[in-house]
Specification:
Elements: H1 11-21, H2 26-33, H3 37-45, H4 52-62, H5 66-71, E1 84-87, E2 90-92, H6 94-97
Antiparallel strand pairs: 1-2
């Protein structure tokens, strides 16, 4: 019998996979989120961890669960919310963000 291997992806891996899943380039996603391409590179290489507002926008734009993006799972995540607060004064509707 062959052993089954389940990959253990870290945050940087999930960020890349989410972006690619959405068919976005680094420059396109960076521009949409209003961050530098250098910051994108640091997040995707694991040099730095994106702050929570950036993670939320990343999940929204790429169409992935915030729980999966953060931790690799969606256990305990509230899937009923259609509006996510991203920072004071800015609320993004995921359906409009796509």
């Amino acid at each position: 019998m062959t052993d089954v291997v389940v990959p253990d992806w870290d945050l940087a891996d999930r960020l890349i996979k989410a972006r690619r899943h959405a068919g976005l380039s680094r420059p396109a996603l960076a521009a949409w989120m209003g961050i530098s391409r250098n910051s994108m590179s640091h997040y995707e290489t694991g040099k730095t961890v994106p702050p929570p507002p950036v993670l939320r926008l990343w999940a929204i734009r790429c169409g992935v669960s915030l729980g999966w993006l953060r931790h690799g799972d969606t256990d305990g995540e509230d899937q009923s919310s259609t509006r996510w607060k991203t920072r004071p004064g800015l609320t993004v509707n995921p359906q409009e963000a796509a």
